[in-house]
Specification:
Radius of gyration: 17 Å
Oligomer: single chain
Number of strands: 0
CATH class: Mainly Alpha
Order of helices and strands: HHHHHHHHHH
């Protein structure tokens, strides 16, 4: 059973014609050709990590569904992708899972806009930590991630991208905590901060030149 296969989806949303249609539409969205980082590989990575961290969640299945939808709408030219993705989750899951879980999924998707869950938000911590895990990778993996993000924003000039990316990195470094789960925070935080700080230094030097 692959992480993004229908069997994994059906454990959360059931096996019905409507569910199969929705799964196919979600997978197709994640497979759009303009995606270089926010693609099916990222979806599978987040789903895998959510599975590993699920023991800390209050509603693990809601977190898994939120992972499926957290970047289902991804257009680098717009600034409301998370909001539109949350609405896409509400529409797509209607009738497939209980309304209360649909609303929790939408709430979690919206959290990925800022990755700053409340201290007592266990579900938000699991999703956001899984989504930001890439920041704590080895330097070469982080460099590949940063390069893929640049490709997604290839419609921007280097100056425009540098300005926007600096703002993103500064926001991440200013968060009260990059990772909220004790099981990963101690190991991931120093690596992520080192990667972010190194990229930020390069971008600031480029902006000043």
């Amino acid at each position: 059973m692959t992480l993004v296969g229908f069997e994994a989806w059906a454990r959360l949303a059931g096996d019905s014609p409507t569910s199969r249609t929705e799964w196919a539409a979600v997978v197709a969205a994640w497979g759009e050709p303009h995606r270089r980082y926010h693609d099916l590989a990222h979806l599978a990575a987040v789903l895998g990590l959510v599975g590993e961290l699920a023991g800390a969640a209050a509603d693990p299945d809601a977190v898994r569904l939120a992972a499926w939808y957290h970047d289902v709408v991804y257009d680098p030219r717009r600034g409301d992708n998370e909001q539109v993705s949350a609405e896409r989750a509400r529409a797509g899951l209607r009738g497939l899972v209980p309304p209360q879980r649909v609303e929790e999924v939408a709430r979690l998707v919206l959290l990925t806009a800022g990755h700053d869950p409340a201290p007592d938000d266990a579900d938000g911590a699991v999703l956001c930590d899984a989504d930001l895990a890439v920041l704590a990778g080895p330097p070469e993996a982080y460099a590949a991630y940063a390069s893929a993000v640049r490709e997604e924003y290839r419609h921007l000039s280097d100056a425009e991208f540098t300005t926007g990316r600096i703002a993103v990195l500064e926001h991440l470094l200013a968060l009260p905590a990059l990772y909220r789960l004790p099981a990963v925070a101690g190991e991931w935080t120093p690596r992520a901060r080192a990667n972010l700080t190194a990229e930020l230094g390069l971008l600031r030097a480029r902006a000043a030149s």
